[in-house]
Design brief:
The complex is a heterodimer. By secondary structure, chain A is an alpha/beta fold. Chain A is 36% helix and 24% strand. Chain A is built from 8 helices and 10 strands. In chain A, helix 3 crosses helix 4, helix 3 packs parallel to helix 5 and helix 4 crosses helix 5. The longest helix of chain A has 16 residues. Chain B is α+β, with helices and mostly antiparallel strands. Chain B has 2 domains: 191 residues, no CATH class; 96 residues, Alpha-Beta Plaits, CATH 3.30.70. Chain B has a 4-stranded antiparallel sheet with strand order 2-3-1-4. In chain B, helix 2 packs across helix 9 and helix 9 packs antiparallel against helix 10. The longest helix of chain B is centred in the C-terminal third of the chain and has 44 residues. Chain B is elongated. In chain B, 24% of the residues are buried. Classes of the chains: A alpha/beta, B alpha+beta. The structure holds adenosine-5'-triphosphate (ATP) and magnesium ion (MG). Magnesium ion binds next to helix 1 of chain A.
Chain lengths: 224, 310
């Protein structure tokens, strides 16, 4: 699903955020991305969603070489990815329903289709009764779940999450991780950047460990 | 007729965006109305001036009918001599038609039109000369040929004064033409102003919705998808402005129509103010909408590309 081939990323002013990172995350896998603050976790996820461009190396998503993707093709790449952000990135002047519907509206789905799919996604994250609410009236955990519903509503083959449990209490964090495992069970490839070492150790999925831009254990994925 | 499905979906999506853009403007009525009002005034100004000169031109053409010459004959020329002169001039190729107005006829006409009937009775003698009204042939209606004809007629011994009538119509028309040029220049400047107004309004709107633009880009929106609502906003601003301009014109027309009709009545003229015809209304509305769209297009092109999610 995702293949990094000697990827390096240097921000215009700053040292290298990633240095010669290589790994292969097969389709249908679930893995965590760990490392200290500033190790390059967010950078790695951003490269996959083409929010940043690699300085060197080759990057493949679903067989497509992203280093060659033109500006006009970027939206099509992003539609294959469900992105979940630590700070949720919801539209605060729209209802929960409208927020979750956005990827479907962008992709041009039919009206009836949108209603059905949005409710299915909200049902999965347990927020069916909140569809008319504004995000501002929801708790942090609920907002995060709205973000997850939005990420999965158009059934993307890949889910990327950057610190999805950063602001949540342990119990909620566990619930959210279980949600990701559920998606993974139906075939979605999942990559989650997280600090929460205790939690992810208990879940037992492979961990990609970043340290100062270097990937310490690329072999962890190919072993399984 | 049934449209092919992709086209139907495309049109439906455009209609949805157009409506939701309109709804967004409607939800901030004061701000939207102010922008539309500024555009409306900018459009009403040249349109109003155009209507004004158009009416002046109509007024001028009512009195025109080609250049006419009046030959005021000397007082000592008798009616018979005047008739003879008329017969002679009738054979000139430069002259199409001649009409003799005897002093009696002139006085009667004056009496009727001026309302000075009783006062004129005091005069012992008719002070008015006999007049030959000359309609030049088409070959002699150009300014220089008409002037040459006037000189030849002036040289006749029976003629006291040859006067090229309604020369002012020509001057007036020349003046109107100049004013119309000025209106074109003004229109161009005000069109530019409309572009700047919509462009700036859309720029602010883009800034206000920066977060929303970033998020939609983040989840795979194309440039066209993000542009569309802003382009429709510009279109609505321009169209709304043009509607207001039309309203302003109609109000001004209502204010002026009755007094002008009254004034025309005093001059025994059937002149009526003329506003715009159907085609011209459409030009006003569509140029407003088009200017709004172009203004939005420029703003969108300059400011949307700089917003990238990070
Ligand atoms: N836009 C940017 N411009 C310049 N440098 C950046 C930018 N974004 C990140 N960096 C730098 O790149 C390095 C990696 O940052 P990154 O955000 O990927 O770390 P991280 O592992 O996600 O950290 P955290 O756990 O704190 O979120 C850091 O040294 C950071 O300062
Ligand atoms: Mg980070």
């Amino acid at each position: 699903m995702i293949r990094f081939d000697n990827i390096s990323k240097r921000y215009p002013e700053g040292r290298d955020a990633l240095q010669s990172v290589s790994f292969h995350l097969p389709a249908g896998a679930m893995a965590f991305l760990t490392g200290h603050s500033g190790a390059g976790k967010s950078t790695l996820l951003k490269l996959i969603a083409l929010l940043e461009r690699a300085t060197r190396g080759q990057l493949f998503l679903d067989g497509e070489n992203l280093t060659r993707t033109g500006k006009r093709k970027i939206p099509l790449v992003r539609r294959k990815i469900g992105m979940i952000f630590q700070n949720y990135r919801l539209l605060f002047d729209r209802t929960v329903f409208d927020n979750v519907a956005l990827p479907l509206v962008i992709a041009g789905h039919r009206h009836q289709d949108i209603g059905r799919r949005v409710r299915a996604a909200l049902d999965k994250v347990g927020l069916l009764d909140k569809e008319r609410a504004l995000p501002i009236t929801l708790s942090g955990g609920e907002q995060q779940r709205v973000g997850i519903a939005r990420a999965v509503v158009n059934k993307p083959p890949l889910l990327l999450a950057d610190e999805p449990t950063g602001n949540l209490d342990p119990e909620l964090s566990r619930d959210i991780m279980r949600l990701f495992e559920e998606f993974n069970r139906v075939g979605v490839t999942v990559l989650i950047a997280s600090h929460d070492l205790d939690l992810i150790a208990r879940l037992g999925h492979p961990q990609l460990r970043l340290h100062q831009g270097h990937l310490l254990n690329p072999e962890v994925l190919s072993i399984r | 007729m049934k449209l092919p499905a992709p086209l139907r979906v495309y049109l439906l999506r455009h209609a949805q965006v157009a409506l939701s853009s309109l709804g967004r403007l409607y939800r901030a009525p004061l701000a939207s109305l102010m922008t539309a009002a500024v555009i409306g005034i900018a459009l009403a100004l040249p349109s109003g001036l155009y209507v004004l000169t158009d009416n002046l031109q109509r007024l001028g053409s009512q009195w025109d009918g080609g250049a006419n010459l009046s030959l005021f004959l000397r007082h000592d020329v008798s009616i018979e001599q005047a008739e003879a002169l008329k017969a002679k001039l009738d054979r000139w190729p430069e002259i199409e038609r001649l009409r003799l107005i005897t002093p009696q006829q002139a006085l009667a006409e004056f009496r009727q039109l001026s309302g000075f009937g009783d006062t004129l009775d005091i005069l012992e003698e008719n002070p008015l000369p006999a007049v030959l009204a000359v309609k030049p042939a088409a070959s002699a209606t150009q300014p220089d040929t008409a002037a040459a004809l006037k000189r030849r007629l002036q040289a006749l011994p029976q003629v006291e004064l040859a006067q090229l009538d309604l020369q002012w119509v020509k001057r007036f028309n020349a003046l109107v033409t100049i004013v119309q040029r000025a209106i074109w220049v003004l229109s161009a400047l005000l069109a530019l102003a409309v572009l700047l107004i919509t462009g700036n309004t859309i720029r602010l709107e883009i800034q206000n919705r920066r977060e929303e633009i970033e998020i939609t880009k983040l989840i795979g929106a194309t440039g066209a998808f993000i542009r569309r609502p802003f382009l429709y906003s510009g279109l609505w601003y321009g169209f709304g402005g043009a509607l207001l301009a039309a309203l302003l014109l109609a109000l001004a027309f209502l204010q002026l129509n009755a007094p002008v009709r009254e004034l025309a009545g005093l001059y025994q003229s059937s002149f009526r103010l003329h506003l715009l015809d159907m085609g011209q209304w459409l030009v006003l509305l569509s140029s407003g909408a088009l200017l709004g769209l172009i203004g939005a297009w420029i703003a969108v092109g300059r400011h949307l590309a700089t917003i990238e999610p990070g």
